[in-house]
Amino acid sequence: MNAPPCQTGLDVDWSTEAIVERRNRFYSASQRKFVPYREPLILKRGRGQYLWDEAGRRYIDLLGMNLCISVGHAHPEVVRAATEQVADLTHCTTMFYHPVPAQYAEELAGTIFVRQRRAARHQEPRAKCRRKRALQDHKGLLKSKPKI
Questions:
Q1: The model scores a pTM over 0.70
Q2: What are the structural domains of the chain?
C-alpha cells in the first residue's frame, strides 16, 4: 500500500534539526517533556493503519488511543465527509447557531444518559453498602476497620 504524497502548501523543512529546534522553541513545556524515544520519530503521512516517516520507512500505527479514530489515517469516507464540510463551513463557534452541533449534542447526551442510568443501577448497591459501613464506623459498631 503506497501512501499519497504529503502536500501542505507550506514550504516545510523536514530536517530533524529544524523540527527539533522549532519543537523545543515553540511547544509548551509539557509537550516538550514527553518524548518516549531516543531519536525523534518524524511522521510524514499515513494511510489506513500505516504511517511513513520522513525517510519513507513504514510503520504500523498502534497508538489508536492517541486521537487516531478507529477508521485509520486518510480513510476515504472520512476524507470525503470532511472535504464536503470544509467546502461549506470550516468552523462555526458555539457563540452562533448552527443545527449540526446542536443535533450532535442531543445524540451525545442521549448516549451519555443511557450509560449513566446503566452505571447507576450497578453503583447504587455499592453506594448503600458504603453509606452503611460509614455509619457503622461512625457509631463504633465495626469490629475491624476495612483494609483499603
A1: no
A2: 16-88 (3.90.1150.10), 91-148 (no CATH)
